[in-house]
Amino acid sequence: MQEKSGTGKAQPGAFAGRGACVCLAGIFVQACAFLNLGAEHASTGATIIAIDISPELLATAEEQCRATNVHFEIQNAYAFTYPEASFDAVVGSSVLHHLVVEQALAQIYRVLGPRGIIRFTEPNMLNPQIAIQKNVPVVKRRLGDSPDESAFFRWSLMRRLRRTGFRDVQVTPFDFLHPWLPSPLIRPFQTIGTVLERLPLISEIAGSLYICATK
User: Fold this and answer.
1) In 3D, which of 139, 145, 31 has the Cα closest to residue 93?
2) pLDDT tens digits for 80-126?
3) Collapsed DSSP state (helix, strand, coil) of residue 19
4) Tell me, what CATH number does 52's domain have?
5) β-bridge pairing 87-93 and 112-123
6) How would you label 54-67 residue by residue, b for 16+ Cβ within 10 Å and e otherwise?
7) To pair with 199 at 20 to 30 A between CA atoms, which of 18, 47, 117, 171?
8) What is the spatial distance between Cα 14 and Cα 26, in angstroms, rounded to a whole number?
9) Statement: the pTM of the whole predicted model exceeds 0.85
10) Which domain holds residue 32?
11) Helical (H) or strand (E) element with 23
12) CA Rg, the chain, in Å?
């Protein structure tokens, strides 16, 4: 069962047969509006709770996804109001690097049921552009990053996940597609990127990290 697409987003197959899934900030705004992935997740039949701390983002997401099994709620990632073991999966796209990750992971772990899974994609600090963008203030401001956001080294992120209690931890670099790449060049560069992702050392500087773990 494939769980990752060429864009690196978690595929709907990861959630098929699961009872309840929570989608953290951004995935429905990005997926429904641009990749239609949120609608695909909705089609799995799982009950999906899409959350964000921003009412405006949630409203945008809700406009893009009308599935009856998807519910939109305002939540604080550091203080979920859900009981323990409420969800079978927690997913997010470019979320954790905006947060105090230890606090967010503790909440995610708490609301996951036994053998619940997480799937996230996050920026890779070993990518040269990401490293400059996240650490050089003038570049950070110019590209519209918020002051507190950062990126992850995969080894330290794996240690954090394991300290939280997660097991079967995998953090895999992927994605050499630049967001400013013209549309006609996306397909050939996807092919090149797939080759680069398989090369030792070179793969470590890919733009994103694909994060998988089990409670």
Assistant:
1) 31
2) 999 999 998 898 888 899 999 999 999 999 999 999 999 999 999 99
3) coil
4) 3.40.50.150
5) parallel
6) eeebbeebbebbee
7) 117
8) 18
9) no
10) 12-123+149-176+209-214
11) strand 20-23
12) 17
